[in-house]
Specification:
Blueprint: H1 3-24, H2 27-30, H3 32-41, H4 45-68, H5 75-100, H6 107-126, H7 128-143
Helix pairs in contact: 1-4, 1-6, 3-4, 4-5, 5-6
C-alpha cells in the first residue's frame, strides 16, 4: 500500500475512535447540532447518533476499500471530502471546548484527527499532480 492509502486508512480509523469518544461522552446530549442531526434520524437521539456515526465510518471504510485502495480516479475527490470532514472536526471540537472552557466529547480524538488530516492534506497538495496523473492513467487503461 502507498503512504496515501495508509494515511487515508488511519484517518478512517481515527474517525471511528472519534465517533466512539463522542458517543461515550453523549455529545448528542450536550451539543445542539448533534442533537438536531441525531433527531433527524430517530426520535431516540442516542439511536440517531449511532446510526449516523456508524454510517460515516462504514462510508469511510467503503471509500478506503474501493476508490482509494483500488486507485480509482475519484480517490482524490473522496480524499478531499474526508479532509474537509477532518478539518471541521479537528478544529471545531477544540474551539467548542475552549469557548466552553471545559472538555466536550470528541476533543481528545479531534486533535489526532486534525494531525492525520493535515498529513493527508499535505499529500494531496504536494502530490496533487501525480495523483491526478495516476487517476487519468487508470481511467485510460480501464477504457481499453
Amino acid at each position: 500500500m502507498t503512504r496515501f492509502q495508509w494515511t487515508f486508512l488511519a484517518l478512517v480509523v481515527v474517525q471511528a475512535a472519534h465517533s466512539l469518544e463522542e458517543y461515550m461522552g453523549r455529545l448528542f446530549d450536550v451539543f445542539a447540532p448533534a442533537r438536531l442531526v441525531s433527531g433527524l434520524v430517530s426520535a431516540n437521539l442516542e439511536t440517531g447518533f449511532i446510526v449516523i456515526n456508524v454510517s460515516i465510518v462504514a462510508f469511510g471504510l467503503w471509500c478506503f476499500l474501493w476508490p482509494v485502495r483500488r486507485q480509482w480516479p475519484s480517490a482524490v475527490a473522496v480524499a478531499w471530502f474526508w479532509v474537509v470532514l477532518g478539518l471541521v472536526n479537528g478544529i471545531g471540537h477544540p474551539v467548542l471546548s475552549v469557548s466552553r472552557r471545559s472538555y466536550t466529547p470528541g476533543v481528545a480524538t479531534a486533535l489526532v484527527l486534525l494531525l492525520i488530516t493535515a498529513f493527508l492534506l499535505l499529500q494531496l497538495v504536494t502530490r496533487g499532480r501525480s495523483f491526478t496523473a495516476a487517476g487519468e492513467e487508470i481511467a485510460r487503461s480501464s477504457r481499453r
